[in-house]
Design brief:
The chain has three helices and four strands. With 95 residues, it is an alpha+beta fold. The protein has a single domain, classed as GIY-YIG endonuclease.
Length: 95
């Protein structure tokens, strides 16, 4: 499926596709995964804005890497795999 990396700010998030469910990684400048999450079709931009510094659930990062998938079930399965493998600092599922 389609993958895209953009700056983790309002302008970058605004360039993301919203027509399919996505898996996203909020990464540091060095490329370390700080947080992995999923967003339903049509909600990727809104969900990522919640993680910006002024959002409800802020996560530090400089870029966001997004991968589109066909279903939300597929996204959640990939999310679990990524969290188990990379153990992002701000995900609570790996603890």
């Amino acid at each position: 499926m389609a993958k895209k990396t953009v700056p983790f700010n309002h302008a970058g998030i605004g360039k993301l596709p919203i027509n399919k469910p996505v898996i996203y990684k909020i990464e540091t400048l060095g490329g370390k995964n700080n947080y992995t999450g999923v967003a339903q079709r049509g909600r990727a931009q809104e969900r990522l804005q919640e993680h910006l510094p002024a959002g409800r659930h802020p996560i530090p990062g400089t870029k966001v890497r997004v991968e589109q998938v066909n279903t939300i079930a597929e996204a959640k399965k990939k999310e679990e795999t990524i969290i188990a493998r990379e153990q992002p600092k701000y995900n609570k599922l790996h603890k």
